[in-house]
Every structure is written in C-alpha cells, then in structure tokens.
Amino acid sequence: MKYVNVEQVEPGDVLARSIYTSEGLTLLHAGVQLTVGMIHKLRRFGVTMLSVKDPLLDEVKEEDVITEATRKDAIRNLSAALQCVQTGKHMDVRGIHKSVNSIVDETLRNRRVLLNLGEIRTTDNAMYIHALNVCMMATVMGVGLGYNTAQLKELSIGALLHDVGKLSVDKDAPAYKAKSMENHHTWLGFHLLRKKHEMSIVSAHIPLQHHEWVDGSGIPRGLVGDEIHDFGKIVAICNYYDNLISPLSEEEETLAPYEACEKIMGLAEKRFDHKMVIHFLRSIALYPTGTSLKLSTGEIGVVIDQNRGLPARPVVRVIRRDQQASRHMAEEHEIRDIDLGEEVTVFISGVME
C-alpha cells in the first residue's frame, strides 16, 4: 500500500483503503479496481489523496490502532447523533458511548502502535473524519499519559463531539451578527453536552476549551495555563494538527504530517502545553505508512513500518525498478528495506508528492 495524490492515480490501480460517506456507508470498498469514471468522481468529491495497492508492497500491512469496523461504526453513530442536533431532536448518545467503549478498548490493546491517520476525506465525510481523528489521537495520548479507563472514555467522548456546537450556531441570531462569544460553537457545544445526564461535565468542557491557548490568547474565555483542563489541552493540539493536514479544512495551506508536527513544536508554551506536545509527538507517525520519501542517499522509498519511540525514523522500502518496466509490473526490480532506527547515517531529505 502507498499513499498517493489523486492526480497520480491511474485506471487499473487498486484501492487499498475503503472510502466512507458521512453516514458511515461504504462509498468504495478496498480492493476495487479504479476506473476513469471513479477517479473523476473522487476528484469531484474533493478527494486529494488515496491509498492504493502496489504489487511490491502487498505483504506490508498497515497497523491500525482502531479496526476498520470500529471506525465505520463511529462515523455512523456520530452522524446519527449530529443529525439529531441539526434537526433539533433529542440527541441519543447510546451509539456514541458504544463507539467510544470500542475505541478505548482497542487503543489500550494496541498501545504499542503509532497512530496513522490514513482515512480518505471527501467533502461529504470531512467533518466526521476530523472528529474521529481527533478522538483517536486524544485517546492515544490519554493512554500514554496513564489515564484510567473511565478518564479515557470521558476524554474520548468530548474529543469525538468537540465540534458539536457548530451544528447549533444560529447565523441569524443577533449574538452571531455581533460576533458575540455567546453564539460561538465552543459555548454552544458545552451547553448541549452539559444537559445530557449521560455525559460528564468534564466531557462537556472539552468543546468549551479546545480553542483555549495556554498563553491566554485563545477563545472563548482567554484562559491561561492550568486554568485549562488537561483534556482541553490535549484536544486543542489534536484538533489543530488534523486541520493542518486536511486539504478540506479552513487552514490556509495543507501540511504534511511532519510539517504539522514541526509547527506544533514551535507553538509549545504559546498555544500548547509543552508536556502535552511531547506526548502528542510520541503518539503520531510523522511519516505515515505508505508515504513516499526521498532519503539522503538519493534513493526514493515507501514507509512500510514504524518504530515506536522513534516516530521520525520509520522503516523504508527502496525499490529499484527496471526503467523499461511498467509500474504495474513486478518482474524487474530490486528491493531493500532500510530501518532508519538502525541506519543512523541515513536521513529523510523530503516527502514525495
């Protein structure tokens, strides 16, 4: 499997990762052979990156912290809950709790696995993929910080629903037109969750605090340092990171994961708590499995595995193909796997488009 720009995908390429709708239904199954029509439709849906299979990487299996079934159920349950909010109906959170229980249990079982955020985003599912990514990152961080199961579930629920207030924003309200914080999605999300007896007040504070910065420059209340709950500090980092790497967010430019991590490091003790930044960087794969890299040796390879504890030093497979061979042919090639955790004189010099 490799992660490529949709403009590089050709008819006949095989999809390596399923694509979901906002309702958690499968738009395209992994294993489908892409056609010209499918590729054009994916472009119209706003897809910019795809996971496709490569004959020389078939035995490489991306380790997932959360199973595909759990991710799919989480999107479905989140969609149902948010539709209730949009239509003014009672939000049934039983599905949310079920998904969170699975996410926490699987994260605890796979605590040695670095998180790869490889879900394919479309204009339809982007909000749900963002919420799920933030939830998974926050839960992985919580495990690393030693939180107990009850704390992890509180963190996970608040992270999954951190943007729920966006669906309650009334753009016709005087408070919105006056740009009052009363109508900001942070406050609206807090008020929505705190009224749910199935939700803890700690979970409700996550939507309220995920835009607060430790230097006091955040919103909606301008809290400083330890005035912000640790869960709010965690989700602030995860939310910002996922927006940075998403081509469908409101950020000015889309960054590669390692670039987004560098930006977050630069904001430690300004926007983000320094301790939380360290735990975040230990949790995420700076070069996700399937990423094409250029090495200091001049060779180009694909990330095939991660080194826990050394997120900037993955295992890279370098493939030398016969220049006359098609990229779909595996007959003429030479393969070499380089573990950058052991090859200390080899460095990553760039990420290939």
UniProtKB/TrEMBL annotation:
Pfam family, one: HD_5
CDD domains referenced in this protein's UniProt entry, alphabetically: HDc
HD-GYP domain mapped to chain residues: 105-296
Record's protein name: HD domain-containing protein
Species the sequence originates in: Brevibacillus centrosporus
